[in-house]
## 1
Amino acid sequence: MAVKMGPILGFRGQRQSEWRISVLLVTDVQTNVPTLTFLPTGGAVAAATATLLKAMPEGNPNSQAWRWDFSVKQTDVEQQVSYEVLGVRAEFWVPAKDSMPNSAYASCNGFSSAKVKNSCKVPNRLWEDLAAKHAERHYHLLMMGGDQVYADSIWDVIPELRKWAGLPVAQAVKRSFTADMARKVDQFYGALYIENWSQKEAATVLARIPTLMMWDDHDIFDGWGSYSQDLQRCEVHQGIFKAAREYFALYQLQLAKGEAHPLGIQPSTSFAYGCIIEPARDHSIAILALDMRDDRDDSQVIAPANWKAIYDWLDALPDDRPRHLLILSSIPVVHPDFSIIEQTLSIFPGQQELEDDLRDHWNSPAHKQERLRFIHRLLALSQTRQYRVTLLSGDVHVGAVGVITSNRDSAGDRSAQVISQLTSSGIVHPAPPGVMLFFLESVMDKKFADDRDITSEMTPFPGTRTHFIGTRNWLALEPDESGRIWANWHVENVTQPYTKVIHPIGFKLLG
């Protein structure tokens, strides 16, 4: 039995000091069920039971996707766990039960066009850098905030879709999603993941750090959810979306068709999920991944019923210790406001693609009120529940820091009125052209009035005189014993990381 992709580690949460892991592997089609064994430090060899997630004799010739689930008991010290499946051996690290995990964050693992790809001499250099840092620091979690694959070439490599995309919109929206289209789209997404995730540099990391992934538009195709209603709802777009959704669930969330994620937020109909990691002393950390694509259309980012499920989950978080809440928001909540440009473009013909990109932002006029409600809820959580809220974002192909500040008098602790956003993008996709970086840095406003006494602001990037890092990067989140999280951006061709420290609310230095 030949391995076609993997192993890829997934994180399934922590409960009663058990670190729960899944392993995904794609093989060719055979009748034998592969065996996975694992060995914690100081423990005995154990075997995990295989689950067949999907057999793909047609959609991706001679392929089967398998998953194994097992847990490792946390001990007083960090421990290495070795595992083996079909002759492939790898290892990962489990944090000590009284410590917060070291984490990494990355986004934008691919290229939006062949031209962009050809301009990049060493595509996977930062995957190599992450692997080297992991060997030193032992990252226990890898959060991936969107665009884990780039599916934009679907319009070029499938002739039927290329022909369909060339039709006038009024004609295109009336066309059927044919059986031949469906077969080729299924093959496309299956092959896309295998081609991208089997590259040595990325595969090395994905086999050694348990992942928490959430999709964004390029995992479907560029701008999904920001097109006009007639395009969004037409049969061809919906057929493509259904296939992209199925492969996202299969490969990024490691789920069988129709299976619920063990960390899924109920009763949400989206893929939003969350987990709480509770060390035995002093501090805790919660992670919330927002699904900002499943419900998305030109009038909403997340459906009201799914927002309610998310807020109910947040309201149920424990109150008993200083704590951090990390929220994966694939689109930055704090970013320059392009809404005036968007409105201007709407009156000119031939600007559909750029207009769709601008409409994708939180500050698009269609989404501003939804964004403001979200900000109000996060500030209330910070002020009343004493959670240090930090947004993690990508998408925009720059590194940046944003801050949301409330100057209202309701909070006794002024530090509880501040929310930071850490943007890291991309680990593979290059930065925007120099003219766009100049425009962001020199022309666009950096501070915005969101509501009465609530502002958001792009702050100078740590250790620089600029607001944006126009170079590929990934982010490390490394906690210390005082409950602080040291956010370190590792930037291509820069020796030392750029650092910002996130303090818990009510922070007091241990000593």
## 2
Amino acid sequence: MRYFEKLFHTVVISMFIGLMSSLAFAADPVKVGFIYVGPVGDHGWTYRHDIGRQQIEKAYGDKVKTTYVESVKYGPDAERVIRMLAETNDIVFATSFGYMEPMLKVAKEFPNVKFEHATGYKQSDNMASYGLRLYQARHVQGIIAGMMTKTNKICYVAAYPIPEVIREINTYYLGAKKMNPDVDIDIVWANTWYNPSKEADAANVMMAEGCDMMAQHTDSPAPLQAAQSQGKLGFGQASDQFKFAPKAQLTATIDNWGPYYVQKVGQVIDGTWTTGNYFGHMNDGSVQMAPFTNMPDNVRMKAAEIKQAISDGKYFAFTGPIKDNTGKLQLKAGEVADDTHLNTMMYYVEGIDAKVPGN
């Protein structure tokens, strides 16, 4: 009898341990890692990605656990951090163009981990790419700049010469040129994503040369604040920066990454994640704009008209004929740039009197 009692107790205990183990396994959260190019407090690019990370937590609660590493430089540091995140996470998001090659390398080493790369164009079986058509909002900024400039000189604080930055310079200029054939553009390469001092210096150099419309592809509010300090106007970058320069901001591009992040992490949770390429659009709410301020009604109305036409799929800034500034035809009459063209754009459009660095 004692033998059967002992056997019964052993079976019950084993079943209990097995049940607890199953419950513990089922309760394990999906681990989500992020690598950021700047600090989460930059009030621009990284700030908006981190809002997306927080939205993951809000959407899934204790079903997920997120972590991030901020201000990671390109090169060996990036590869090291991506590998570190891959060792402890189920899905890793790399949020800058320069992380593409190291992520592709690490993805091969961790076939059971999902990888997602922002603003790139390479994929693999376990690495997807994603981006937003932020050039759509930048074109609207150009429309406004062309109508608002008093000196016919607009300007751009650029970060690094990569396709994303080049195409936004182009679309900004094309928008301004559409409204003002006499407009000229100055470009200063700050060679940084986030350095408020360098960004402000670049803005001040161009304003000293007559620029009165400030756009930027760097991430702090410094260029916009510099514009306000000199009585000039400009545009916020990646988030609504109105509170930093309420007399200067005309509008801002707002990067809305959250819905994509929530969707892709949900796919990891339910086992349906697949690779591919996502390119968010105004019409799905991933590309947004801050309210139009500090401008007359006719400018506001025109900007709203163009914005709506872009959202409705009736207006495409990169529609041929478009030549580059060497005279080479890049898009034939009526041709709309496809994603491959947009994601590999390394030329300035006709009219920009400058040379793309490195070309």
## 3
Amino acid sequence: MDGQRAKSFEVGQRLSVSIEKVAHGGHFIARHDGQVIFARHGIPGELVEVEITSTGSSFYRADVVKVLEASPDRVTPPCQYSHASGCGGCDFQHINIARQRQLKADVIAEQFSRIAKMEVEVVVEEVGDPLHWRTRISSATDDDGHIGFYASRSHTVVPVADCLIATPSVNYSELATRRWPARSRVEISASSGGERSIAIAAAIRGSKARLTQGPKALTEDVYGHELQVSNASFWQSHELAPEILSDAVREHVREGDHVLDLYGGVGLFAAAVLDVIGESGRVDLIESSPSATADARRNFEAFSNVSVRMGDVDKGLSAIDHADVVVLDPPREGAGKAVLEKIVNLSPRTVVYVACDPAALARDCRYFAEMGWQMSTLRAFDLFPMTHHVECVATFEPSQNQESKVS
């Protein structure tokens, strides 16, 4: 073929294909006449009919529109909006929950093999009910003010009468009876105590949301510490995530430790480790969001052993000369080489890395390895059931050769 396509397909064209394997991002890989197709709503091993939805320079995108030979793991989606032309949110509802977790483990292993050049085995741990778990919802409204969610890779809003992954305290079915400002973004947040706040913004990316209902800050309890979380501040979306992730972090902290909480938000992990490190330990929290930093300062104003700094993590690390444990929960793109180099230069005993994207984690794992550090543990949690997303917690320590150089 000399690098040229043997055959090209058009948007709307239907093809029969076999689904080969899961891909990072919630799609499944198939091939037809030598061309790669990334299809939604498939399962490896199935024979399906797909409809081409977009074309690229080296691959096509498609939706499964008919299942010709179904996988035994295929189930009827609990949500009526989970189909090719429906809501673009929950891309795994057609798969039984055990297979969902296995597919996520496959993605983690593939990313580490491809990017970090490491072979890993990981079990994605079950976390609670696969429905009714989400406490943070970002909805959109159509031209008539109906609330819903965007279709996959589209600006089309699909009106939704109820969101089955939302917690009962979100009360999405009640919100769906209202009429909202047209072409808007509706941010709904619910606390573990049942509070609910709603903020509305223009649909334009980056537009600032205005609180229209509920308290300015929700209250969350973390190991007996009450944390204030403003509408514009980040908080874990799964109702059990704060506890699950805090437990995973706490087991690597000791009494008297100096802990760095990087990308620390309102202080989830700072609050989680306070009773472990005791009065002889301390926490330095660095966060770039003005809203989250303001929340963190209020949350720890009574604790003299907690310092909260606002700014870029890379720059903020320049003011730190040592730490025993570094905890980082970076945005989806990961921490990056420059930040990791500064962390390594602090000679911590352990780095605890919380990651929402296995590809970014694998890339940063490769950087750690180049600096003489090794991944000592890797756990994965199904904190986004019914979707392709997965949360990982990895720990890193100096390799034996690196420890010899330091000593």
